Amino acid sequence: MLSFERLNVWQKSIGLAKRLIIIANKLPTKYQFSFADQLRRAALSIPSNIAEGAGRRGIRDMGNFYSIARGSTYECVNIIKLLEKLEEPSLKAENLDELYLQAEEIVKMIYGLSK
């Protein structure tokens, strides 16, 4: 097991990324080349940058990757919020409050890693 796999924040971010990718895959065709594609890429970026940051030796390098992961989390929430405002029917079955809490927890944990 690599060191990043032991990080609770990485494990939680994998769960969030999976959930976001499932949401993206359920979006209608009209959103597949805009919202869905961007959501999948941002979701993948969260655990990927946590993993890459954990593999760096320098504090500055680590912090940069953690900052990108944090930004990608915000980006995902922004996309979901916009889809919610557009009243996208495929989001009706999702517990968005839980998703937002999960994202907020991950952001706080990433911030803690940066310290």
Descriptive report:
This protein has 115 residues and is mainly alpha-helical. Helices cover 79% and strands 0% of the residues. The chain is elongated, with a radius of gyration of 14 Å. The model has no long low-confidence stretch (mean pLDDT 95). The chain has helices at residues 8-26, 29-54, 59-85, 96-114.
* Biggest β-sheet strands, sense, barrel: none
Helix-strand pattern: HHHH
Q: Please report the total strand number as a whole number.
A: 0
What count of helical segments does DSSP give? Answer: 4
Q: Roughly what fraction of the amino acids lie in strands?
A: under 5%
Q: What is the gyration radius calculated from CA atoms?
A: 14 Å
How does the helix and strand content classify structurally? mainly alpha
Taking all residues together, what is the mean pLDDT? 95
Distance between the termini: 24 Å
- Name the overall outline: elongated
Tags for this model:
115 residues, mainly alpha, 4 helices, 0% strand, elongated
What does this entry show, briefly?
It contains four helices and no strands.
